[in-house]
Design brief:
Glyoxalase; 8 strands; GlyoxalaseI/FosfomycinResist; four-stranded mixed β-sheet; about 130 residues; VOC_core; globular; 2 helices; single chain
Length: about 130
């Protein structure tokens, strides 16, 4: 088996609308509806499918829970601007701008949390 890329991942969320608002208004993703009223957040060539806690779609993670994800997104927006936008939306910055290692080399990252407490890392390659 040879894996080429990640197509989508699933987040279990406590409040669909809060999550949709956060990822569309703050992170610039696009919400789409599919398969009988399910929601996903599109960005680039990937998406995040959303499961409402207690109403997950089968099959699902063995322990589907809110706030257990640690996600890193690559941005073309300067990180200083990312931090300013987060402050404008009253999103608490946990750490940044911090040197890290991405999948293909060194990155710089800013960390914060989504409404469910998932750790969000927004990064740029150096």
């Amino acid at each position: 088996m040879k894996i080429e890329r990640l197509d989508h991942l699933v987040l279990t969320v406590a409040d669909l609308q809060k999550t949709i608002d956060f990822y569309t208004n703050i992170m610039g993703m696009e919400v789409v509806t599919f398969a009988g009223g399910r929601y996903a957040l599109n960005y680039g060539q990937q998406k995040i499918n959303l499961h409402s806690k207690g109403h997950e779609i089968e099959p699902k993670a063995k322990i589907a829970t809110c706030g257990s994800a640690d996600l890193c997104f690559i941005t073309s927006t300067p990180l200083e601007q990312v931090m300013q936008e987060l402050k404008t939306h009253h999103v608490e910055i946990i750490d940044g701008i911090a040197p890290r290692t991405g999948a293909i080399g060194p990155i710089q990252s800013v960390y914060f949390r989504d409404p469910d407490g998932n750790l969000i890392e927004v990064s740029q390659y150096i």
